Amino acid sequence: MRNIYLVRHGETEPGMRKGRCICRTDIPLSAEGVRQAEALGVWLASRSVSRIFASPLSRCRETAWIMAREAEFACGGKQAPKPEAACASLVIEAVEELSEIAGGLWEGMLFSEIRERFPETYEARGKALGTVAPPGGESFLEGGIRLYRAIRRLLGGTGRSEGDLVLVTHSGVIRGLLCLMFGWDPARIMDIPVPCGSVTRLWTEGEGELLGRIEEAGVRPGRYPGREACLRLWDRYDLPDHIRAHEEAVAELACGWAGKLCEKGQPLDAELTYEAALLHDIARLGPDHARAGAKLLREEGYPELSHIVRVHHGMAGGEEYRLTEASLVFLADKYMQGDKRVSLEERFEKSRAKCRTPEGMENHQKQYRQAAAIKRNLEYILGGNT
């Protein structure tokens, strides 16, 4: 089996693309994009890869170079690799077919200007985003076909690409390929998560077809982003101070429990617990905030965080009988009224008044039963020290 890792380049300077159609315009990495590329390098160090192929656009070549440099350093190397030349074990090669979809006449234009000058095509593309191309450009699916052909060529018997492949490329062609592979609705192609600095794993057996799982699309190299990145997400989504304070309090409580459980031999990740709690109300200002927050975090490339956030307002039946990162965040959230700790009884008594339908009351009672079950399990293992 050979793995094919499709890496989306790191984040670019936002001011240069705001409100514009940017496909092949050459934009450099931002400071955050450099950090993302460095994280990809740590991920790369644990993979058996000898060559990196990259789109010729600078944001991909720079991502590839930083990845290779960090991987070499992580493996004890003292020299950074150079494009087109072997240094230690890694070589970086630019491949034209890995470029982003062509923007055609729309490249670099403001979307407001596109809407005025090309109203019919703009409207048609809005209804069928994956299949309608800008004038003189490519559709997402056309870009996906090009990427597929490039992968088949690089997998071919040229002797240049033995082993697993890393392809540093762009979201448009990755989405186009995944849409074709998984039978995704092309009109909803932007729902396929491919955030900057993420990895999508595909594989092939011998000369067989490319295989993959949508669950492995657009996943960041780490299980969680780190506290500073969590705080940047707070800023990006304009989280008010009182929600930030609540999330901090929930995170401290849940992480404290996770640490004590780890000391008792429970297989938990305290940092995953902490960061999931820091982000559990990231979409609190909108409707169905648990589901919306989960979607947001999946789009950011963190499937484990996404799951924990999704279930913090209602776990699947039976999940409450296992002490997991998700159940700890669920319980800690129920212990906090704002940023003040209260009893479960007090918290649920106050929230009962919000239940205006039989379904709402039933869900409220279910959450109380689940919280009580998690509390009993926690007290049993920690000896009542919760």
TrEMBL record:
Taxonomic superkingdom: Bacteria
Start and end residues of each HD/PDEase domain: 239-347
A molecular function (GO) term: phosphatase activity
GO cellular component terms, semicolon-separated: cytoplasm
First and last residue of the signal peptide: none
Pfam families: HD (PF01966), His_Phos_1 (PF00300)
InterPro entries: HD/PDEase_dom, HD_domain, His_Pase_superF_clade-1, His_PPase_superfam, PGM_Phosphatase
PANTHER family: BROAD-SPECIFICITY PHOSPHATASE YOR283W-RELATED, HISTIDINE PHOSPHATASE FAMILY PROTEIN-RELATED
Protein name: Histidine phosphatase family protein
Origin species: Candidatus Enterocloster excrementipullorum
Lineage: Bacteria, Bacillati, Bacillota, Clostridia, Lachnospirales
